[in-house]
Amino acid sequence: MSFSFVVTVTAVAAFILGVGWLFFAPVLIRRWGMQVHSETVVVGRRLGTAYLGIAIILLLARTAPLSQLRLAISAGLLFAMVVLAMLGVKEYQAKRVNASILISVALEVFLTIGYAQVLVDDLKTLSVL
């Protein structure tokens, strides 16, 4: 997978999540089988704003040449995707969310593979590996 492809997929997902959390937080909370509380809606809306900011950053960076910034984006998102996938599985196993979380986990695993491949390829190009 190319950097441009993985970043674009992530940006689209972040945009969809951002709009969803910002404007439809109760729907997303219920989708995971959780109770809607005003506190979770507030956190969800704030998270939505962060997702939209990430989507903008990634869309603007999608054509970035190999650089320290591109490595930082790949490494940071690789870390985030690994942890998000692990947390999703853990919350599902603990029965704090329902099986719909596994859709998110599947996307996170796909993006983990993509960012790992991009990072390894970029580091090989730089002769670091």
TrEMBL record:
Ranges that cross the membrane: 6-29, 49-65, 71-89, 101-120
Keywords: Membrane, Transmembrane, Transmembrane helix
Protein name according to UniProt: DUF4345 domain-containing protein
